[in-house]
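This section describes the prediction task in plain terms. A model, or a person checking by hand, is given the sequence of a single protein chain and must write out its three-dimensional structure as a string of tokens. No templates, partner chains or ligands are provided. The sample shown here is typical of the held-out split.
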Amino acid sequence: MWIKPVVLVAFLLSLFILSVNGDRTIGFSQGFAANAKNDVFVLGIFPRRNTKVTINLFQPLANYLSKKLGKRVVINTSRNFASFWKGVMENRYDLVHYNQYHYVISHEKSQYSVIAKNEEFGEDTIAGSILVRKDSGIKNIRDLKGKTISFGGGPKAMQSYITPLYYLRRAGIDEGDYGKYFAKNPPNAIMSVYFKQSDAAGSGDKVLDLPMVSEVIEKDELMFLVRGEQLPHLPWAVSPTVPDDLRFKIQTILTELNKSEEGKLVLERAKLTGINKAVDSEYDRHREIIDAVYH
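The expected answer:
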């Protein structure tokens, strides 16, 4: 098993548990706050990865949007899901990239409208999953009783917590039957299993293939214990304060990135193979899963 020493040290120093039973989170919002001036446009990106990586990946997109829209586009991100969600509820973001739970709730409560969804590795779907080490002796979901599970992000993480919880409950495994911890983000949840800090990880199935994971660990040492149904990928949505004409223009810019060399470079930097059009009804199955878990 080969691991880059610098990466291992960084991982162990940051190590991964933010709270037990989700009672507390730590971190702070970073970036620019929303600006009411018409010449500033705020792009909110959720903490699927750490802050530095997130800004590095999406700054070219912000620059591209700025050129196309004739507005200064600034990125706002957070170190954890809780502070990011606070930004959503305070309507800090004009355009926001987040998970399906974030979208469903923000659409209901704040009238955010989905316009697009990720395409990664040539697919615009993703599945909530539970991963374990192949040498763990865990063979089926019922074997997780009495084990520790690290969920990536927090209680609002769709693929990394809500969907895995849905499958745990369907298998008759309730909270209290296992130890529950929240990792800072999905990659950290996966690495916590790899480094034997927890027995299982809740994560989206595509996270295992992200370079920041696949280039650090031997992913063949892990396996999917549960790989849920493929559902529409991570959404992009606009605030209700964005006019219809601007909303359409942003959708066109995002979904036509792969039609130009400059746009392809933006996608490559963001580790995307495309951004495709999306409509609200595509997230109805997510609504059903959320309702089953939280109501």
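For orientation: The CA atoms of residues 251 and 275 lie 9 Å apart.
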